[in-house]
Every structure is written in structure tokens, then in C-alpha cells.
């Protein structure tokens, strides 16, 4: 197996120059880079990342912690983060560990301190949790994706605004009986993001003088949970609202499926609005607030790489754009 | 920062023993392990994985290549693989790279040869592709998940049998006009797995003497694509089948949604059967053939770790179980 010394000798440069040319870090002229790359190819030279790592102090690997790999938001975010890391020569070490799981404790207590990741991206972690404090104590760049309280490097959307805009869309169409489906089935499980969406719904209803006519049906943020909550809510003809704001698109789609099962026409008898613009939103003609988790994953990586380039870079709090997308699940009430 | 030498001195053992005790590799007595762990905790010792890696020749990292992170099958598989790797002290380096993408070429040509992963798990790669040959040339353990042809370490289901059982279920109920939705919209994009499912469908129809009454509506393996193909297929009352086998659950669910839109009652006017037991199958009461991608991810890791423990272990070809799950999307034709 060829060494970096063999490559340097063949290219007629020093080992340090050959290493710079191949790693892409530090300046070498184009001509030198070409000579070194040609020599490396001729010798079938392959850099050993472990040795490179000891030499540079970098592992070129970023740890990413998500509560689930399968949910749409997280998988889109992972896709964006991984693409951007790959473009920049970094690997993504994946930790899909549910909240309050043993695996999650293991990752935080044991794996992260041992592995010398260059930085960590953490998704959907509660900002005032002991976990966040533990991550920051690692002394490496950390970027948070999701709602947060403290000033830190983070990417989020304005959750309250998203829910307020969704609710105002129904109010503008003339709806007065509007329900919010989502939040949490247990009070202690209410996430900061869902709490802010609920608050945004209530503030829109309050501002329109409709606070007495709003109702909240708790549901987890999944299609089956939204379906079940909607069957209960819509099943009672006397208390049935004419508009529903889902805490997320999966809940809103569960609501549309429940309405179809119950023979309630969308949008003539029921308008439904979601938040996300999930991959299935279009198929269900769902009016929604678009957030782009893939872009949020890209933005998180850019924030992290900036910290790696310049440890003194100022803290940046990116608020990702979201916009109302009107499809045919919402209309004026009959 | 404490070193392994500090830990060894405090515990009164050799550096090699301290290293064995902390890495979990190689024998040490329980008493010694306790002494070393106590010393490591007292000194806040954290192993450096790069240094460990140079010493052991292992990076404790497995590269996993999937064509997409977001699709249900792949995200379930990733979840199972990552859990099992974590349990065994390994990290998962994620490469979600679509077929025929530049990123995929970069991973195969550049990233994998440079990174010293202990092994690679690759999902849904065509067995006779140049990519598979390239992977095997890495000289490290490779496990393939998905249909394959050559004898290699692999996890798959019997795709032909899955589709045959789904089709036979409809034939047993009395259906004679049965369509298969799926395959591929372009001939050169037909995957080995889909080709085998199509073959399983045709062999069941042939065996029942119904080969003249089968039809195939091409679709990609997604819900929207299944929906579109079903709208075309079911829209024509004269050629409408009474039963549909979807190449996967996403296509079958798209078919059910299309039927609802067209006012065709499932199962009284149309029976639909899928393959997967997708997370949404139950919500759509979908009769399906259950395959368990999370278990397949676990099995792939176990196969890989076995190769790492014993490079001479015989090649093993795991065929994962699949079973008919009858729900209410299928019934006898009227």
C-alpha cells in the first residue's frame, strides 16, 4: 500500500504539501494539486481517515441525533443534512434515539463523549432539558433544529405564526366554529413547538373575538392519532366544527380520512388546514403552511461548518421561512 | 486530560489490560474490569476513538448506503440497523444517495475507499451492477439487503412468493379480473424485486388459468404514483378489474384513495391487496403481505458482525419471513 511519502516523492513535493493537496485544506497551487492528484492516482493511494484524523484533530464526522428516522420531518431533514455534509467532505453518524429511551441515554452519556465528532446537530430536543446542557458541555459546536429558548446556534420556524396564519385563513373564509387537533394526549408530553402552535391558534381566535367558540382535541402528531381524535370530534353532529387546524399535516390528513369515513364532505362540510406541506399533502389536496425540513437540515449543516471554520463566529438563530399553500381542503362554510 | 497510562497506573494494571477492560474486547476478570472502570471514572478518562482505531485497526463504524432516507422501507431498516449497531458499540455512517446520482458516485468512488469503515451494508443495490463489484473490491465485509443473484451475505424476502400469495388470496375469494399495479413506468427502471413480484403475480394467474384476464398498470412504488395509475385503470368501467394487487402497500393505499375519489366501494366493488404491512396499512384496513424491514436491518447487522468476528464464517443468505395479513380491503366479488 502506498503512503503519503510515496505520493509526495513521485509528485516532487513535500509530504505536508501532498497532504494539503489531497485533503483540500490549506492552500496549494492548481498546478501542484494536479501533480499530486496524478501521483496519488498512479499509486492507487488512499488516505487513511484515522491517521488523517490524528494529524488534523478532525474526524470529518458530524453526529446527528433525531428522535425517529421514519417520520417525514426527520427523514427530510436527515436527507438535507447528509447531502450537504457529503458535499463538504463530512460523514453523518446517525443516532435515531427516541425521547426517554435507554439508547438515548447511552448516546449522550457514553457514545458522544468517546467519539471525537467534529460537531453535533440535534433535532427536536427540549431547550431547557438536562440533555441540552450535557450536549453543550461536550465543548464542540452544537446546532439545534427546532424550537428553542436560549440564544444558541439554531434553526427553527416560527411555530406560533404558522398556526396563527392557518387559523386566520379559516377565519377569513368565514368560519367561526374552529377546532385545533393536536397538542398532546398527556399534559407532560406537550412539546415546546406544539405548545407554541396551540398558542398561535388561540391568539388568532382571541383576536377575532372567537375564543368562546374554539375547541382543542388532543392528539399525537401522527396520521392514526389525528384520525382517531377526528372520529371522536366529528362524530358528534351537535359539537362538530366547520373548520379544523391540524397541529401538523399528518394529523390534518388523518382528519380528512376520518371525514371521508364518516361521510362528511371536504371542503363543503368541513375545511381542514395543516402545517408542514408533507409529501402526501398534495395527494389529499391539503391547504397547509409549508415548512421545508430538507432546507432546515441544509441550514443546520451550514451553521455548523461556519462554527468549525471560525470558532469565534457569532451565534446565529436561523428562522426558516414558512408560507400558506392554499389547496382544495379549505373553502367558505355552507 | 487523563491518558490510558494514568488509568492503568491508578488501577494497578498494565496499559494493555486497562485498554481491554475499557474497550470490552478481549478477556479481563470482573474484578479487574471494576477496578479499571472505577479508576477511569475518578480520572474522567474518555477514550479517543481515533487513537483506539489506529491501535485496533477498527473504526467501530459501519457505512450504510440506502437510495432514500424518507421512504418507509428504508427508514424502518435504518432504525433496526442503527439500534443493533448501537447495542454493539458501533456507529452508523449514513449515505442516503439516490440511484444514478452524482452523490452516489462520489460515495462509491471516493468516500468509501478513503474512510476505514469496518464494513458496509447496502440496501436495494442491483446485484449484477458495477456498483456491487466495486463494493466487493473494497475488501471489507459487505451485506446486501434486497433481492440478489450471486451467493453473498444478504437479507431478502421471497418477492415472487409474496406477490403469488397476495394474488392467490384474491383468486381464492373468487376474483377472476385481477390487475397488478406497479412494476415501472420505464422498462429499464424495473428493479429485480419488482420484476420478481410481477412474475409471482403472473404465475399465480397462469396456475389458475386466468392468464388472459390479468392486466398490468405500471407505477412507481409510491402512493401518488399508485393513485394516478389506479385513477386511469379504474376510471374505465368496462375494463375495471374487481381485484388489484399493489406492488407495495404505498401503491395499494394510493389505489384505495383513488377508489374512494371515484366512488368505488372497497371491498364490495373492489378488493385491494398490498405487500409490506406499511405503517399506514392498518389505518386503510389494507390486506397485505407483511415484511418487517426493521427486522431485516437487525439481521443485516448481525450478519456483518459475524463476518467481523470471524472472517472465515460461511456466506449466509437470510430469507426474511413474510405472511398474509387479512384486513377488510379484500372480500369476495359481488
TrEMBL record, chains A, B:
<keyword id="KW-0805">Transcription regulation</keyword>
<dbReference type="InterPro" id="IPR010982">
    <property type="entry name" value="Lambda_DNA-bd_dom_sf"/>
</dbReference>
<dbReference type="Pfam" id="PF13377">
    <property type="entry name" value="Peripla_BP_3"/>
</dbReference>
<keyword id="KW-0804">Transcription</keyword>
<protein>
    <submittedName>
        <fullName>LacI family transcriptional regulator</fullName>
    </submittedName>
</protein>
<dbReference type="InterPro" id="IPR028082">
    <property type="entry name" value="Peripla_BP_I"/>
</dbReference>
<feature type="domain" description="HTH lacI-type">
    <location>
        <begin position="2"/>
        <end position="56"/>
    </location>
</feature>
<dbReference type="GO" id="GO:0000976">
    <property type="term" value="F:transcription cis-regulatory region binding"/>
</dbReference>
<keyword id="KW-0238">DNA-binding</keyword>
<dbReference type="InterPro" id="IPR046335">
    <property type="entry name" value="LacI/GalR-like_sensor"/>
</dbReference>
<dbReference type="Pfam" id="PF00356">
    <property type="entry name" value="LacI"/>
</dbReference>
<dbReference type="InterPro" id="IPR000843">
    <property type="entry name" value="HTH_LacI"/>
</dbReference>
<dbReference type="GO" id="GO:0003700">
    <property type="term" value="F:DNA-binding transcription factor activity"/>
</dbReference>
Amino acid at each position: 500500500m502506498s503512503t503519503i511519502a510515496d505520493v509526495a516523492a513521485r509528485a516532487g513535493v513535500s509530504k505536508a504539501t501532498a497532504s494539503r493537496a489531497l485533503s483540500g485544506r490549506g492552500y496549494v497551487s492548481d498546478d501542484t494539486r494536479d501533480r499530486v492528484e496524478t501521483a496519488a492516482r498512479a499509486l492507487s493511494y488512499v488516505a487513511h481517515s484515522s491517521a488523517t484524523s490524528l494529524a488534523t484533530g478532525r474526524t470529518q464526522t458530524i453526529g446527528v441525533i433525531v428522535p425517529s428516522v421514519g417520520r417525514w420531518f426527520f427523514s427530510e431533514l436527515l436527507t438535507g443534512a447528509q447531502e450537504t455534509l457529503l458535499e463538504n467532505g463530512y460523514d453523518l453518524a446517525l443516532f435515531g434515539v427516541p425521547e426517554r429511551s435507554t439508547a438515548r441515554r447511552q448516546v449522550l452519556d457514553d457514545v458522544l463523549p468517546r467519539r471525537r465528532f467534529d460537531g453535533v446537530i440535534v433535532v427536536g430536543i427540549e431547550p431547557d432539558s438536562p440533555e441540552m446542557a450535557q450536549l453543550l458541555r461536550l465543548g464542540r459546536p452544537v446546532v439545534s433544529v427546532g424550537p428553542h429558548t436560549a440564544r444558541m446556534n439554531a434553526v427553527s420556524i416560527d411555530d406560533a405564526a404558522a398556526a396563527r396564519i392557518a387559523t386566520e385563513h379559516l377565519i377569513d373564509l368565514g368560519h367561526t366554529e374552529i377546532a385545533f387537533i393536536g397538542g398532546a394526549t398527556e399534559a407532560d408530553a406537550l412539546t415546546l413547538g406544539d405548545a407554541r402552535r396551540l398558542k398561535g391558534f388561540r391568539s388568532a381566535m382571541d383576536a377575532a373575538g372567537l375564543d368562546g367558540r374554539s375547541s382543542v382535541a388532543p392528539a399525537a402528531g401522527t396520521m392514526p392519532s389525528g384520525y382517531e381524535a377526528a372520529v371522536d370530534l366529528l362524530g358528534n353532529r351537535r359539537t362538530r366544527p366547520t373548520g379544523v387546524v391540524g397541529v401538523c399535516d399528518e394529523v390534518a390528513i388523518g382528519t380528512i380520512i376520518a371525514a371521508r369515513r364518516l361521510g362528511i364532505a371536504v371542503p363543503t362540510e368541513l375545511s381542514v388546514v395543516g402545517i408542514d406541506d408533507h409529501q402526501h399533502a398534495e395527494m389529499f389536496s391539503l391547504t397547509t403552511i409549508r415548512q421545508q425540513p430538507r432546507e432546515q437540515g441544509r441550514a443546520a449543516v451550514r451553521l455548523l461548518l461556519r462554527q468549525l471554520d471560525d470558532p469565534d463566529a457569532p451565534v446565529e438563530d436561523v428562522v426558516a421561512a414558512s408560507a400558506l399553500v392554499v389547496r382544495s381542503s379549505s373553502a367558505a362554510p355552507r
